[in-house]
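**Discrete fold encoding**
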Amino acid sequence: MIAVAHGSRDPRSAATMSDVVALIAAARPDVDVRLAFLDLSTPSVEQVVDAVAADGHTHAVVAPLLLGNAFHARIDLPGLLDTARTRHPRLHLTQADVLGPDPRLVAALRDRALEALASHPTGAPHLADGHPVSGTRLRHIATDAHDGVPLSTRTELLARVGIAVAAVGSSSGAANGRTALVAQRLSAVTGWRTEICFATTEPGVTEAVSRLRSRGADHVLVVPWFLAPGLLTDRLAAGAPELVHAEVIGAHPALADIVWNRYDAAFASTLTLSA
């Protein structure tokens, strides 16, 4: 497997993606898993493909560690692989699907929000008696309707949590609309109020927070729809410094499951085509 990340000038990004790929590789030690970057970080896709060919491999599944099916997944990476196939005609390269808004990634987003609530008690909602609700407790309330909390209290408590789901943003309105579905799905599985915002286009984090406040959310967090930290997550933090910002998805266990699912599907399709 060649796991391909976006790349960034920020060294935190490459370090995080290295942790992600270590997690992926640990799940199947019998498969040679290598990390490559599309841009700004090394090793590049070209370098890794050359190394894989030099090591005698005849087939590699290229798994994009990308949240959306935008330019990099549809144009950039396929072009790089076409060029690589010319250099290495005996190496069969199969591109797997992107991560996408997989329900397991939405659950990972929820986990990062709960961790932020748990580690910042002042950002957690309170029960009627004034006691804050821990992240662990809120997890039960969000996922278990039979946890002993009266339905009216449960509904009110969850609705008071506001999540600004923060993504990169695109020049394509359709792409931004698809990303906005992530916020809607997070709301559907938690009962929290959610709004989408973007680091590079509108609506920005300030507008998302304002919308959440107007909808009755009095405990607002920013939860990044990013795999790794970098300049854009810093920009989001600077745009709302008074709020709690959850961690990026990073090396969440769900990522390993999803990437191996994409790998298996790509490998199976190759076997079907060659049969």
